[in-house]
From TrEMBL:
Originating organism: Periophthalmus magnuspinnatus
This protein's name: DAGKc domain-containing protein
DAGKc domain span: 36-187
GO CC annotations, alphabetized: membrane
Keyword Signal: yes
Membrane-crossing segments per the record: none
SMART domains given in the database record: DAGKc
Amino acid sequence: GKHQWRCSDVVFLCPDQSTCEQWVKAISNQITLLTNRPKRLLVYINPIGGKKQGKWIYDQKVAPLFHKACVSTDVIVTERANHAKEHLQTEADLDKYDGLVCVGGDGMFSEIVHGLVTRTQNDNKVDLNDPGAELARPSLRIGIIPAGSTDCICFSTVGTNDPVTSALHIIVGDSQPMDVCSVHHNNSFLRFSLSLLGYGFYGDVLSDSERKRWLGPARYDLAGVKTFLNHNYYEGTVSFLPAEDDVSSPRDKLQCRSGMCLPENTKQLTSTLLMPFSDRRDGWKVINGKFMAVNAACMSCACPRSPKGLSPAAHLADGTVDLILVRKCSRIDFFRHLLRHTNKDDQFDHVFVEVHRVKKFDFQPRNSETVSLEDLSEKSTFTPVCPGPCTCNCGSAHSSWTCDGEILPHIAIQVSVQCQLVHLFARGIEETQEQQQFVFEDL
Ligand SMILES: CCCCCCCCCCCCC/C=C/[C@@H](O)[C@H](COP(=O)(O)O)NC(=O)CCCCCCCCCCCCCCC
Ligand SMILES: Nc1ncnc2c1ncn2[C@@H]1O[C@H](COP(=O)(O)OP(=O)(O)O)[C@@H](O)[C@H]1O
Ligand SMILES: [Ca+2]
């Protein structure tokens, strides 16, 4: 149920010992032939993520399963932020392994993707600072054992945040390609974004929540209420290159399901991504305005707080990102919009919300040319001009971007989707039996 997998024992009864041994040998031989299954894994554990249970979860729930399945592991418990990233970039002997495992939240997974992808670009002499460069794809898959505060990447790719389910997807060697957004400021690479890249509301929630880390996962709810009450909006210009209209739409209600985003299904989409950077203004659209939030969802961003996610129909590996623009609106309207993330109603069905499926986009804050977070460090970014309700022009101030839970050092950014840059040990969200029956009855 609920996409959760469990181990189960099967008892074979044999008439004699030698038949039994033949069975054991035959089954073991068959399993060795399954080349998708990883045999050696490099595991990184963030001991301070989420409720600080990462090490316990791994030791109690995951390691015994790896042991049963004859998967050997090297385990590194991180000692500081960026430990895993730096280890992957410079030290790790990656040839020794069939895959990586991340025990932690979205921030920890992001570290591992940055380490692995940067290492792969260095090995292939690809310049990450060139926004038009075609990036080399790492050969190792990554498994996520959820032990963070949001665990949205695990939830959106598996359908649940359950360590045992994730361990079993790793053991059977599932593979799920995943899009990654690269974020640049002028011609310098800032970060990859894997889940939510958000300016305005979510940027402000994140900035405030960092000061409340001691609260654990609840820091987001408290910061969320505070940011909601502040009710700030920000002025800026969003330019974007739409994906082909006839392929799919963020409002088609077609959720990304297991098998939907396999490489062969998306080949025609990837080819268009190789467009030279200089031609990029053809077909671009520009929207100027006052925004409560500018959100880019590379995947649905489903998580326990919002089981259908920020963009329920976003696809994991189609080379596009869903750009959600929430314009300045009243508090009550913004509350209605937020509430719809938690129920079945359509959060895009408001006059002040629009959503576009795009391949690239730029954001430029109003009066921004030289603004960077260093300039803003003196003042709190979530209370731009005046606290609480006000009638003055709050729109002249700036928010900051949250990128998978990290604050970006710049506000003017250029974003492009790197189609299927990494692969996870996952298979996407499977249809439940009831859903399959529903589709069958429909036919
Ligand atoms: C009225 C209730 C409204 C609930 C709205 C919930 C919307 C939640 C969308 C969540 C999208 C999550 C995207 C994932 C981002 C993560 O990569 C990233 C890092 O994760 P990590 O800590 O595991 O490393 N996490 C986050 O950025 C956390 C975002 C959480 C946002 C919570 C917002 C709560 C808002 C509450 C408003 C309440 C209004 C109440 C008025 C009285
Ligand atoms: N040993 C450590 N000490 C301090 N910070 C760490 C350590 N290991 C990883 N981190 C950092 O902790 C941050 C949050 O990790 P994450 O696992 O995403 O937890 P959460 O979901 O609670 O935010 C990441 O940005 C990561 O770089
Ligand atoms: Ca996508």
